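Problem 12. The chain below contains 95 residues. Write out its predicted structure in token notation.
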Amino acid sequence: MRPLTFLIGIVMGSTGSLAFVLLLVWVVFLLLPANVQRFETEQSYLLQAIAVFTAFCAASSVSFYGDLRNRSWRYLAHAATLGMLAVAVWLYWPS
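Solution.
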């Protein structure tokens, strides 16, 4: 396995974990109807984070597969992964 494939695998696992945990947090918010007013302002940010990291995981998964199998479209998938990294940094970099 090449070093780039290994690094993309780390990114894929990390973003997949983040997306899954954020989804579980959202489920917990849904199961707490008594505190719905308390968490109402956070739901839109949470759903945005779930969408961003799910898309990031999907892009890095396609990139990982393309690099692992040495497909001709892997460079496009790498660009999509870098694009999702740029989106995540742009959204969550402290102001």
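Discussion. The first helix runs from residue 3 to 30. Students who got a different answer should revisit the alignment rule from Section 12.3.
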